[in-house]
Write a structure and sequence with these properties.
By secondary structure, this protein is an all-alpha fold. The chain folds into two domains: about 1-170, no CATH class; about 175-330, Four Helix Bundle (Hemerythrin (Met), subunit A) (Up-down Bundle), CATH 1.20.120. It is built from ten helices and no strands. The protein has helices at about 5-35, 65-70, 80-105, 115-140, 145-170, 170-175, 185-215, 230-255, 260-285, 295-320. Helix 8 (about 230-255) runs antiparallel to helix 9. The chain is flat and about 70 Å long.
Length: about 325
């Protein structure tokens, strides 16, 4: 098989893996927003079955007592929540296979640019840890700290795959001209990524507060939930303004001072994502937390981090003219 075909195959698998991980993040947000996290109270099976039941009649008559004895009181079968969580798990398993294929297809790089394979390998290892962590989330009855760690680890995994695919294109990226960019752009985009991750963590804390208030109110009076949130909601809301201003400034610098079509597309996409997160955030604030807005808000915030990382790495390799070469890239 030619090097050109091997590289194209790796790019295809890595891009598919990235898309799958982001789909998993979106589905995970839907699971959280719909309260389906304990739709399957056991792991890896669901209600003791590899294929979940579709009606309560398929479960033992005393199933609630069985799960109460295991520490899961008030377990009630809900077919919608059960299958939402089960499909989330299936997508997680599929993600594991895609990242395994990405690792295997990265092996041709190991003699020319071992970092590509190392990044793919690190992602594969972390996917296994992520699966184990998911089982701990269920076993802990949705421990808030574990949920936050689960979310952060997803960002790390997708970041590793993004880094691998961009690293593999380094010889081409080194031909880009970014000499017009101010040197201050590079540390500031790193700062934007770090602050963005912090904002994600703050968002999970807000979500945990909403879950607690919803449970205490027996899931009624939805319009009062935001009013009862702690100060962290205001911190999360106003911190977003600073992040938008910082990212907006960075976008303008790149669009003004570079001629790279790749960087222009990435920054325009980042701009649309920022607008999307603002719209979703305002809809949650003004429309009493509509269910559709919560997973989309998290999903777009995750995409922002991945896009920022892509921009940073493209600019970094464009600045670098030295170092070992990767496999010859296929012509376009």
């Amino acid at each position: 098989m030619s090097n050109s075909l091997k590289i194209r195959r790796f790019w295809l698998l890595a891009a598919g893996t990235i898309a799958t991980i982001y789909a998993l993040i979106l589905v995970g947000g839907i699971v959280r927003a719909t309260g389906a996290g304990m739709g399957c109270p056991d792991w890896p099976q669901c209600f003791g079955q590899w294929i979940p039941p579709t009606s309560e009649s398929q479960l033992p008559a005393d199933y609630q007592q069985i799960y109460a004895d295991r520490g899961y009181k008030d377990t009630t079968f809900n077919v919608r929540k059960t299958w939402t969580e089960y499909l989330n798990r299936l997508l997680g398993v599929f993600t594991g296979f895609t990242i395994l294929l990405t690792l295997l297809f990265s092996l041709p790089f190991r003699k020319h640019d071992a970092m590509v394979t190392q990044l793919a390998f690190a992602g594969f290892i972390l996917v296994g840890i992520q699966g184990w962590l998911g089982s701990r989330v269920v076993a802990s009855n949705l421990n808030p700290g574990l949920i936050t760690l689960h979310m952060i680890l997803a960002q790390v995994i997708v970041g590793l795959v993004i880094a691998a695919i961009i690293r593999s294109a380094r010889p081409r990226l080194q031909k880009l001209d970014v000499s017009g960019l101010s040197k201050s752009v590079y540390p500031l985009i790193v700062l934007a990524m770090v602050l963005g991750l912090l904002q994600l963590v703050l968002g999970t804390q807000v979500r945990e507060g909403i879950d607690l208030i919803a449970k205490q109110s027996n899931y009624v009076n939805r319009h009062l939930w935001i009013d009862n949130l702690s100060l962290i909601f205001d911190v999360h809301k106003y911190f977003a303004i600073a992040l938008v201003l910082l990212n907006g400034w960075l976008i303008m610098q790149v669009l003004r001072d570079t001629q790279s079509a790749v960087l222009h597309r990435l920054n325009i996409f980042l701009g649309f994502l920022l607008i999307g997160t603002i719209v979703m955030g305002m809809s949650m604030d003004r429309l009493n937390l509509p269910i559709f807005a919560q997973p989309l808000h998290l999903w777009m915030a995750s995409l922002i981090f991945g896009t920022q990382l892509s921009i940073f790495m493209v600019m970094r390799y464009a600045r670098s003219k030295n170092g070992e070469s990767a496999l010859p890239l296929p012509s376009t």
